[in-house]
Amino acid sequence: MPSPQSHWSAIVAMVLATGLFAASDSLMKLTAQGLQPFQVLFMRGLFGMISCGLILIVTGQARQLGGALHWRVVLRGVLETAATFFYMAALSAMPIADAIAIGQTAPLLVIVALAVIFRERIPALRLALVCAGFLGAILVAQPGGSGLSPAALYAFATAMVVATRDLLTRGTPSTIPAFVVITTTNVLLTLATGGATMIHESWMPPSIQQWLTMVASGFIVTLGQIAIFLSYRRAPASVVAPYYYSFTVWAVTAGFLVWGEVPNGLAVIGMVLIVTSGLALLFVKARRRQEAVA
């Protein structure tokens, strides 16, 4: 059984991971201001793929690369690629904090999907928390008279695809190493964005600074994936999962430091609702599991 000390180290790893993801996304958003979106994704995916490949070799997990062909691993990579496409479209046109906050409604969508598709009954409290989370997302998106902006729609599409990924890949065999799964996703993302760049964009020669920024972004996102992996290895998911919502805090910080973005009052209320409802849902789920065991 993991010790309380390992729980603290796992929590630190989770908070560090979300900070690294926010830093990587910030670098990607900065680079996208001077290059094509698919091109930026291709560059980050390329260096992320190289980083993961090196980790596979160092850890010895390369011997288990056959697991990359498992249909759930491939499906996860395809859905992750689609989610990244939508997320990049949202990130290019809206504040990073807003894009991440809306994206964090994915767990709420999973609950709704379980109720609709698998006829799972949602208790009144959980339903109220889900509704509160979606209300928060609407406050962050702040639709005008013509409805949601395209960027907000892309952010909601990101959450929907992530929820679909989580539903359809829940049964991925635990015998397949985490970095085999991550590498598969990076390979599929790099191939897809490379193809999209050739078909839909004109390659813009990156400057040395832009290349270095994408090298850093790819390396940082890999470090974040390592931190997530270590976090779930050192403590139960029920302990560390709530701290994934620190992503929103990091995103607000990055938006302010890099672009001077300050969310308005409605957006702040919306972010608080999303984070609070997500944390409360995790707490309710943990309590129900404890009661079932008792």
Short description:
With about 290 residues, the chain is an all-alpha fold.
Q: What sequence of helices (H) and strands (E) makes up the elements?
A: HHHHHHHHHHHH
Mean pLDDT: 89
N- and C-termini, Cα separation: 18 Å
Q: Rg from C-alpha positions?
A: 19 Å
Count of helix runs: 12
Secondary structure class reads mainly alpha
Low-pLDDT residue spans: none
Give me the count of strands.
0
Question: Strand portion, in percent?
Answer: under 5%
Largest sheet: none
* Backbone shape: globular
What is the helix content? over 70%
What does this structure look like?
By secondary structure, the chain is mainly alpha-helical. The chain has a domain at 95-148 and 264-294. Helices cover 78% and strands 0% of the residues. The protein is built from 12 helices and no strands. It has helices at residues 4-32, 37-59, 71-93, 96-103, 106-117, 124-141, 150-168, 178-200, 208-234, 237-240, 246-259, 265-293. Helix 5 crosses helix 7 (150-168). The two termini are 18 Å apart. The mean pLDDT is 89.
What keywords describe this structure?
294 residues; mainly alpha; 78% helix; globular
Write the layout of secondary structure elements.
Elements: H1 4-32, H2 37-59, H3 71-93, H4 96-103, H5 106-117, H6 124-141, H7 150-168, H8 178-200, H9 208-234, H10 237-240, H11 246-259, H12 265-293
Helix pairs in contact: 1-9, 1-11, 2-8, 2-9, 3-7, 3-8, 4-7, 4-11, 5-7, 6-12
